[in-house]
Amino acid sequence: xxxxNDNINxxxxxxxxxxxxxxxxxxxxxxxPGTGGxxxxxxxxxxxxICDVALGTAADIDRAANAAHDAFASWRDMPAMTRKKxxxxxxDGIEARAExxxxxxxxxxxxxxxxxxxxxxxxxxNFRYFADxxxxxxxxQHLQSPTLMNVTTRKPIGPVGVITPWNTPFMLSTWKxxxxxxxxxxxxxxxxxxxxxxxxxxxxxxxxAGLPPGVLxxxxxxxxxxxxxxxxxxxxxxxxxxxxxxxxxxxxxxxADTLKRNHLELGxxxxxxxxxDADLERALDAVIFMIYSINGERCTSSSRxxxxxxxxxxxxxxxxARVNRIKVGHPLDPATEIGPLVSQEHFDKVTxxxxxxxxxxxxxxxxxxxxxxxxxxxxxxxFTGANNQMRIAQEEIFGPVLTSISFSTEEEALxxxxxxxxxxxxxxxxxxxxxxLRFTDRLDAGxxxxxxxxxxxxxxxxxxxxASGIGRDGGDWSFEFYMEQKHIGFATGQxxxxxxxxx
Length: 503
Ligand code: NAD
Description:
Number of strands: 22
Bound molecules: nicotinamide-adenine-dinucleotide
Low-confidence stretches: none
């Protein structure tokens, strides 16, 4: 309780300046009010107004895009080692303010401090990792042919737009912004309207670290106005987007006239498949972690449990006991495992599935109820007796809600796992090596873990197939997106050039 009070006091100190002056947009190193006025940011913990936030419109996006355009040439041409040093200083700045970032993130999004303190540090890791790649980011290849020496080189694509969602917003923003800056691009960031606080901290930290004005600009506001204008702006060469699949489709449409390059990281309905030969204790830990941590508001969450019928009863019984013991509480209490859902709208969506599950004939084996009236709290929920045709098995609920489906054979498990519009991640639990090889080869997903929860390694490709997205982040894949390949062929001699119109 003391730690909770202590955290609340620290949070209040950090929020004082935002309560007094609101959160402004940041364009070309200057605070700018939104031309649309202000909108309130609401805390999901108690539904109170945290502060007012500048409401950005197309006019603000235009200013920010022009600022990013004006800052581009000098940022692109800055010596790589100088750019690297700035990115390292941003990582240092994030680490120095990690507690402030985590406290603000929890209050803004409802995520538990237990997870957000690590997520803030992951943001620093993202900057440090891509800072290390700055020097070689432009390196190309040498592809000799009989008459030419062909070389390739990479150039930053130009100013880019980054549009992020409200789940772990700080970490996700750094995951996009760090490689963009490392590549030599300038950025206009449109954070989610539900979670503006830590985007403001990121731009402050970046400028304090020496990032020149206009290299990172932040415009707050809503998707159908500021977000849309960013996609349509001719000075913006690419959009890195993280959010829902239907928004991803809008991003593509909106960018069509300006031939925008889009990278889309979208939704998921990811299966975790547990075979009866697996290490069931470890599988249980991973199944619980991958759906109930981060409030289940996580694109890679394993929201469908596919459990072999021979072990279903025993596994589900253990699962129910553990789920019922998960601690729902104040997100700033370090013991809390699940905080409130991010907003009224999302709370209404998640809780609607409690009734949908009953109507579809599934059993609500744990949870299925809200907690208190102060904020958007729900009990961690488990649906059993489900089949893959039910809405609870097909739709992304994006909360601490797991749907359990049983299967008898490997073939059936594969068919159920792939019977979804999405294809982000898959998790396979088996001690049969050849089955693991066979199964992962046929599972439709961008990322698969065998006998493991999602353990992110930054050089590996991150992204989904089907409605879960287009494109990959991570390692050099990030630079493929933020840079253009250029080929130059040098003649090595006097090769024959076909003559036209010659006598
Ligand atoms: P969302 O699509 O509603 O919003 C995401 C962002 O897009 C917000 O900033 C929003 O303002 C903006 N936006 C909305 N409409 C827009 C438009 N027409 N043009 C431009 N921008 C627009 O998503 P959300 O509810 O904030 O986030 C949850 C979703 O994000 C889930 O579906 C989740 O799976 C997905 N997600 C995916 C990944 C991944 O890596 N695949 C990671 C995290 C979250």
